[in-house]
Amino acid sequence: MGNIFVVSLSIADLVVAVYPYPLILSAIFHNGWTMGNVHCQISGFLMGLSVIGSIFNITAIAINRYCYICHSLRYDKLFNLKNTCCYLCLTWILTVVAIVPNFFVGSLQYDPRIYSCTFAQTVSTSYTITVVVVHFIVPLSVVTFCYLRIWILVIQVKHRVRQDCKQKLRATDIRNFLTMFVVFVLFAVCWGPLNFIGLAVSINPSKVQPHIPEWLFVLSYFMAYFNSCLNAVIYGLLNQNFRKEYKRILLTLWSPRLLFIDVSKGGTEGIKSKHSPAITTNNNHAEIHL
What we know:
Layout: H1 2-18, H2 20-30, H3 36-70, H4 72-78, H5 81-99, H6 101-105, E1 108-111, E2 116-119, H7 125-158, E3 168-170, H8 171-203, H9 205-208, H10 214-238, H11 240-254, H12 257-273, E4 287-289
Antiparallel strand pairs: 1-2, 3-4
């Protein structure tokens, strides 16, 4: 069930590529925004949807992994299909609710420094502080707590501190956890500078803002949105199944006829597999006992 949140995170990363990024490229080519205020508001809204959707989905993934590894006996009840769908809907409802106040505050504006319509940090001091705390610090605190508890359990498993426990951890579970942990760390690193700049500016705009170099703000902004491109790379580097699929997709693009060969081969192997016993490998079922 945890894979549903991974798919949801991927959708959040793709949102910016569908609408805002083409408009940003247009603004760069024209050296200014030429699409009008309506497109500016829509672009800013979708950017916020992508950003907040990403952090909320990362938080949901961390909670899911925490329950799966640290409370495995209750996991199936907590994350059955119905509950998981409810959690997913709640994640996106909270995301939309978190963005709507921007329209009332008027904080979605075009910023010529970054050629995009985005959240303006200087519109409202109190609102900017709220955004940084609710949309960044609180979720990252929850994620940090979940992953620290998981790390503690993994260390206990490694050193067999809790031999009396009947809980088991599979090697695949640990690999999946490490993948999502890297996703979290890179998100914090990429988004941290922009959020801390916003927090510093909101606390004392008149004194802090003039001392922040434009290049630093631009660098922190594009580093933040570059994070949306990193998750696919992380999955490819750390997950064997993703690596195989990436390789198959690239080979198919290079030689489309391979697609038809794979399809026919898959159908043949599917028929053969019905007459042969299932074969499992030790790697897929490797377990670490506590």
